[in-house]
Design a protein that fits this description.
alpha+beta; Aminopeptidase; seven-stranded mixed β-sheet; 4 helices; about 35% strand
Length: about 160
């Protein structure tokens, strides 16, 4: 029998700590970044910031953050999936969950920055390159991608 995955928002300090640890381990540690570098200024403001975690058997195996930029746009950042669970649709499910969440808030457009090796995944999810993103740790080029998640109505 396949294990059941739950996607939810972290609700206690222990879950937040485990989420940040996974974020650091997957996204920052490979670049020799110190503990603490997995957080940015938006993590400390907590205004219109939403965190999501994927769990199997009580273990956090994936995480992402959604930040509302304005009434028309939100940004997904820090998508990370535990190495043991890569290629199993965890990231796709997190993205889909965040898109539905954003639709519930009335946010019609989502952006994110991706490195080249992740670009294909997001193209499969109908994200399009809209420009260049910032350099990742001043080393790796990123692409800014975007997607309309609420189709424009025409009369």
């Amino acid at each position: 029998m396949k294990d059941i995955m739950i996607i939810k928002q972290p609700c206690c300090e222990e879950e937040f700590n485990e989420m940040y640890n996974l974020r650091w381990k997957i996204l920052n540690h490979p670049w020799n970044q110190p503990k603490g570098s997995e957080k940015d200024e938006i993590d400390f403001c907590n205004e219109r910031v939403f965190y999501f975690i994927s769990m199997i058997k009580g273990q956090i195996i994936g995480t992402a953050r959604f930040h509302v930029n304005n009434e028309y746009e939100g940004d997904i950042k820090y998508l990370a999936v535990h190495d043991d669970y890569r290629g199993q649709g965890i990231g796709k499910n997190l993205i889909a969950h965040i898109e539905w969440f954003a639709i519930g808030l009335g946010i019609p457009y989502i952006t994110l920055n991706v490195i080249k090796k992740a670009q294909c995944l997001f193209e499969k999810l109908n994200y399009q390159i809209i420009g260049e993103g910032p350099l990742l740790f001043n080393e790796e080029k990123q692409y800014k991608m975007g997607k309309n998640i609420i189709p424009l109505l025409t009369c």
